[in-house]
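From the shared-data thread, chain only:
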Amino acid sequence: METGVVIEAGMLLVATPALLDPNFADTVVLMLDVDADGAVGVILNRPSELAVTEVLAPWSGRVAAPDVLFRGGPVRPEAALAVAWLRDAADVPVGFKEVEGRLGVLDLDTPPELVDGSLAAMRIFAGYAGWGRDQLADEIAEGSWYVVPAQVPDVFRDSVTTLWRDVLRRQPGELAWQSTRPADPAQN
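Structure, as tokens:
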């Protein structure tokens, strides 16, 4: 289904109030890869209580606060992937794959000492969100997602409690209004 909405790596999907799937309700998803075969992203606002040091000790202390794994999505929750921001676009460490500009995915099999000094920020996600061919376009057409530009602070902020509202609030027009919408409009 054609939506007319352009979705690219580095953009955000923001769940609309119509999206009731518990895996994605009230989420903000950073798109990491989008092509004709599908799309992959990570949920930015679902921190777990599991400390990075408990499962990936060498990376502890190298991640943005809070030092916990984030639940990136329902696909392969036993696998971890890291999203990182380079200090300098000219200093690309081993294991880094660009998503957009200085934002990219870091291979966690890379020895941590090889990236020291190269990263301005990093976050580790358990699992990811994935969509097959046309699946995401269909979900957007049915009104499940808003597609908006990302800002680097969205990915690495200390507290993600208000991320959904903050991302919508900075959008133009009606999307900003959606940030103030109560969970149950009948309560308004």
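The beta strands are 11-15, 28-35, 38-43, 47-51, 68-71, 75-86, 96-100, 103-106, 119-132, 145-149.
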